[in-house]
Design goal:
It is built from 8 helices and 7 strands; from the N terminus they run βαβαβαβαβαβαααβ. It has a 7-stranded parallel sheet with strand order 3-2-1-4-5-6-7, sandwiched between helices.
Length: 284
């Protein structure tokens, strides 16, 4: 493909003809939109056929319905990313139904339950957190890249892994409550670099979008649950770590960054850890 980005008639961030798999495209209930759902809707608005993957069937179908209401094209795949074979099935189904994979967004994260009195977590819950936050990302990166390398062109696919500044910034000390999450995101950062290096010759790109304080249902819920904060305290805690005066970002801002990384306009970017954090990681 010859880049024509300087032409006046170039349509920016055009995903027409591309198939984008959004893993974590549903979301937990609440008033705010999540990163996965916003990314799925944004990709569809720019012409992609979107595969909405989630463990929660109702949440996945709700995202599909929202895309359909705007005239977009999508379908759900129900899968548990803690299971390797479920990760494989995501891409088997996509290839069977759509014939190709051009983009993959891994937007999945959990904080496993813990005992607040003893500040402990069962081994099973800890392992499940690592399986979802990290190993699921590894398998989805691998299977997505293997599909993408079959495509033609000088840029054959783009992977976007949603990470967190929790992987590089720790202000609360060694705490079991977020360890599977933070460790999982550390691993996901490295998985991005490995994927980028391994599949670069095939034209597949992989980048990490490292998020800071995003105003999402998951972030608000986990602040209140993990650290027993009121909604107002959770909001202030997020704002306190942001260096820019506008405060927290919305998941739509995440989605626009994801759009850039999925689109051909970012074809010279791979293996990068991009911080969307309002400057929160400037001081460590």
């Amino acid at each position: 493909m010859s880049a024509q980005f300087g032409n006046i008639d170039h349509t920016p961030f055009d995903l027409s003809g591309k198939v984008v798999v959004v893993v974590g495209g549903g979301q937990m209930p609440g008033p705010q939109i999540g990163n996965g759902r916003a990314s799925a809707i944004m990709a569809a608005r720019h012409g992609a056929e979107v595969v909405v993957v989630d463990k929660n069937e109702a949440a996945a179908r709700e995202t599909v319905d929202m895309i359909a209401a705007e005239g977009g094209t999508s379908y759900p795949v129900i899968a548990d990313v803690s299971d390797k074979e479920d990760c494989r099935r995501i891409f088997d189904v996509t290839m069977q139904r759509s014939g190709r994979v051009d983009g993959m967004v891994y937007s999945v994260a959990i904080n496993p339950p813990f005992d607040a009195e003893t500040d402990t977590m069962t081994t099973a819950d800890f392992d499940h957190g690592i399986n979802v936050n990290m190993l699921g990302g590894y398998y989805c990166n691998l299977f997505a890249a293997q599909c993408m390398e079959r495509n033609d062109g000088d840029t054959t696919g783009s992977i976007v892994n949603i990470s967190s500044i929790a992987s590089v910034k720790n202000e609360i000390g060694l705490n079991i409550r977020i360890m599977p999450y933070a460790l999982g995101k550390c691993g996901l950062n490295y998985i991005t670099e490995l994927t980028a290096a391994q599949f670069a010759a095939s034209g597949v790109r992989a980048n990490t979008l490292m998020l800071g304080p995003i105003d999402s249902n998951l972030a608000n819920h986990d602040c209140q649950t993990l650290f027993e904060q009121t909604p107002a305290e959770a909001e202030q805690a997020h704002r306190d770590v942001v260096k820019l005066k506008m405060g927290r970002a919305s998941a739509w801002e995440t989605a626009y960054a994801v759009l850039y990384l999925l689109a051909d306009e970012s074809r010279f970017m791979t293996g990068q850890q991009i911080r969307l954090d309002g400057g929160a990681a400037l001081l460590r």
